[in-house]
Design brief:
Order of helices and strands: EHEHEEE
Shape: globular
Oligomer: single chain
Number of domains: 1
Largest sheet: 5 strands, antiparallel
Strand order of the largest sheet: 2-1-3-4-5
Length: 97
Amino acid sequence: MVYRILQLGHSEEACNYKFLPYREDKVAKRSLYNVVYTGVVEHTGGMLDILEHLFAKFNISRPADFKGHSLSVSDVIELDGKCYYCDRISFVELKNW
């Protein structure tokens, strides 16, 4: 399964949303995000298990070619055509984002 890691860019507007916990009315526009990595998930399990696996991977054993910051609050993982906002404790699916 292909995944993409999206992180907020460096514009002034994007910086206003960096590292904010999820609030439905406070999610940055998709256009403020940059795709910083694309890969293939080789982990099996449910969606939450896969998301947690990717979170650990990009915080503990990041790929050498990954140039973004450690996965954190406000980052987004796109997986299987759906986008998931990294919140303080877990992930929130972003519908119609």
